[in-house]
Q: What sequence folds into this?
């Protein structure tokens, strides 16, 4: 049984399936259902109650109604489980309690609970952080700092993540330019240019929310001047630029030319001298 279908939970499902286990998994985030089933796990989903959505891909603290429905759903699965791996965490909060003492008492003797959330208090009510204990015939593993147990691989993964962030932030000229439109950069940056950037750190320090600059409006595209015509190509252009004759002042017929010989007088027309 896997509780929490994040990175660790998905890895636990894949490993258990390779070992030939029948795997069940649960998570309040609906989008994890397809991910768990793609690895061969049966997904146990709480239905009929409101599910709160978290941010940044993490689960949110759920209501008491949800917790009661989840406990009822998982009770049967816990009775049949030989091993439970719990990975459920909520950012900046204690780990949610998904396995009660009553659940532990209902499990088969010799079963094992590996509580990967022990560092935040554990997902099991009976977990003792930093210790491996046996209670109600069930072994509860509450080790802390699990990455240290696989130091080489943890260091390789961490260094690769740091390298990828740095390479992604390099310009073509080889200069670092942090782009806060990138969710990874925006969520990982604590301080920059003398300013505390991370919202949770600002909250803990009693600082007001950081005002982010509004995106600038795009400037209208500049019209490029048309190329100058040269040589024979300029002649038609010049001809086109010649002003048209005004029919009211320029005679176009013999009759109009004769009429031009007269000057207009206030009392009529008189032939020019």
A:
């Amino acid at each position: 049984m896997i509780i929490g279908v994040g990175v660790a939970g998905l890895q636990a499902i894949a490993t258990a399936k390779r070992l030939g286990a029948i795997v069940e998994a649960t998570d309040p985030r609906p989008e994890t259902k397809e991910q768990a089933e793609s690895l061969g796990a049966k997904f146990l989903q709480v239905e009929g109650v409101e599910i709160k959505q978290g941010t940044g891909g993490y689960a949110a603290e759920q209501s008491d109604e949800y917790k009661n429905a989840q406990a009822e759903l998982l009770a049967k699965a816990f009775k049949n489980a030989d091993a439970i791996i719990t990975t459920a965490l909520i950012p900046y909060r204690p780990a949610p309690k998904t396995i009660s003492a009553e659940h532990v008492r209902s499990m088969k003797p010799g079963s094992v609970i590996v509580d990967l959330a022990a560092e935040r208090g554990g997902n099991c009510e009976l977990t003792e952080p930093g210790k491996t204990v046996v209670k109600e015939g069930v072994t509860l593993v509450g080790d802390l700092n699990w990455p240290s147990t696989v130091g080489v691989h943890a260091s390789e993964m961490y260094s690769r993540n740091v390298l990828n962030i740095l390479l992604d932030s390099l310009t073509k000229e080889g200069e670092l330019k942090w782009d806060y439109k990138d969710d990874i950069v925006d969520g990982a940056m604590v301080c920059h240019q003398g300013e505390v950037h991370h919202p949770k750190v600002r909250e803990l320090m009693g600082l007001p929310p950081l005002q982010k600059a509004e995106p600038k409006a795009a400037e209208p595209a500049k019209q490029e001047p048309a190329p100058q015509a040269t040589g024979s190509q300029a002649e038609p252009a010049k001809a086109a630029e010649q002003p048209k004759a005004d029919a009211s002042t320029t005679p176009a017929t013999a009759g109009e030319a004769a009429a031009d010989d007269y000057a207009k007088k206030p009392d009529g027309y008189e032939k020019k001298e």
Summary: The first helix runs from residue 7 to 18.
